[in-house]
Amino acid sequence: MKQFVKKKVSFVMVMIMAVITVISMSLPMAVFAQGGGYTLTLKNEGSTPHTFQIYQIFSGDLDESKTLSNIQWGTGIKEASKETLGTAAEKAQTLTGESEAKEFAKTIQEHLNEDNKLEVRVEKNDSTTVANLNAGYYLIKDKEGSQTQTPPNSAYTSYILKVVGNTTAKTKLDVPELVKKVQENSKKDIEGNGWQDAADYNIDEVIPYKLTGTLPSNYAEYETYFYEFNDIMSAGLTFDKMSVKVTVDGTTLTAGQGYSPVMRKYDQDYSLIVHSDTNSFQVRFENLKAIQSVMITSTSQIVVEYKCRLNGNAVIAGNGNPNTAYLVYSNNPNQSGGGDHGKTPEDKNVVFTYKVVVNKKDEENHSLQGAQFELRKIVNDQDEGTKIDTVTVTEGTKFNFKGLDAGKYKLIETVTPSGYNTIQPIIFTIEATYDEESDDPQLTSLTGQTEGEIVFIRKTEEREDSLSTDVINKKGIQLPETGGMGRYLIYTLGTIFVLTALGYTVYKRNRKHTEK
């Protein structure tokens, strides 16, 4: 019985140890099969997870000052490459500074032993510790193909070289940023110039946009640098390709057609590529580092300004007319040539426009036909304003003024239904509020204010948000006529007098004939 219990206990202990082993393998403390007593903590300060590959380049003895002596080639170098590379100690003596170390990290790639490396995944803003490492000089790099355009803000860390002795290594990476803004026309002449995330405009008005891109702090480590603005417009926006202006730190650049095989260079600073089928465009720099017209550094700002026209396909109020942009950029400083690309998150702007509906009625609230209206926009309190639209409805009684900006307007009745009095011009103001700074701007309120008696009500009809009001015509007055009976009496007496005179004349003529 005791023997049976002992066997059962032993079995349970084995199972417990197995579970502990499995759990320990899933913990952030990774184990590299070297058996040494040192640790390497990898700290990911990027915005995406990273899968790091760790190679021991040199082995040796490590003292308290982190000096590596008795240097030999490490387990991360192919056996076949050790003779080609020469002695490890001699190679180590050439690494006198950071630039030499960076170059060494690039040239050693083809000699790495892929069968003797450790892969460690570290989540964004997190860290993982690798234990049981032997003393040595280690290369840490991102796994190839692990940093792509999805998710956004991906970038490869520059190669990291560390002498391991309970050491922490941080990611050496950075990504560009993109800020997209639209100019609100009512604020463009005040401080700040009205650049924000949303605005409102009349249909057919021109809308200015601005894209501002930055560069990564490790821009200098790239041999070439691909950089591309991507802008996607909704159907209500018409792009004006002639309006595009590109500057770097205030210096205007010139557009071109791309790479010239004869000259072996890009003939101009950037290319403008328009996609009419998707209502989008790109401003592409095949290699920022090839631009000679301006000195570009990691602190430079690249700005693209352009204009759109709000067209007849514009969405009225509601979700508005969005426009998004993002950057595609080089994200691997370790590669020569273009290398891999990353992508920033999309930045969104929205332009709103509104509609006013006028219902023509009489005093008894019946629909009234035969009117014509003219709408004028009042800017800077000018009396007459600027003509926006004229609407005539011969049979209907509803007048739609579509695609209006927020602001002050004058509604004038230019043709009045027969028998009714012309209304006095109506002055009213469209007031709207929306998110001026937001990742997803929304229209938060829409109202109509008037200086008269009419009332605007916000309605949703046929998926279009609008302001609706009734405009009432009063009938004219039918005035009484004076002297009507006297006139008729005169006419009657006159007739009797004429007939009597005519009868008397006939009587006298007949009497004369009788006497003869």
Structural shape: rod-shaped
Low-confidence parts, pLDDT < 50 over ≥5 residues? 1-32, 257-266
Q: Span between N and C termini?
A: 183 Å
- How many strands, which pairing sense, and closed or not: the largest β-sheet? 8 strands, mixed
Question: Could you estimate the helical fraction of the residues in percent?
Answer: 10-25%
- For the secondary structure, the number of strands is 34
Separate helix tally: 5
- Strand fraction: 35-45%
Find the structural class using helix and strand composition.
Answer: alpha+beta
Summed over residues and divided by their number, the pLDDT gives a mean of 82
Q: Rg to the nearest angstrom?
A: 43 Å
Structure description:
Strand 33 and strand 34 form a beta hairpin. The chain has helices spanning 2-26, 79-85, 88-93, 98-107, 484-515; strands spanning 30-31, 38-44, 50-62, 68-73, 118-122, 126-133, 136-142, 160-164, 167-170, 178-183, 195-196, 198-200, 206-213, 227-233, 237-248, 251-252, 255-256, 259-260, 265-266, 270-275, 280-285, 302-310, 321-330, 341-343, 347-352, 354-361, 371-378, 386-393, 398-404, 407-415, 426-434, 443-450, 457-461, 464-472. Strands 12, 14, 17, 20, 21, 23, 24 and 25 form an 8-stranded mixed sheet that branches. It has a 6-stranded antiparallel sheet with strand order 11-10-13-22-15-16, with no helix packed on it. Strands 3, 4, 5, 7 and 8 form a 5-stranded antiparallel sheet that branches. The protein is α+β, with helices and mostly antiparallel strands and 516 residues long. The longest helix has 32 residues, at 484-515. The radius of gyration is 43 Å and the shape is rod-shaped.
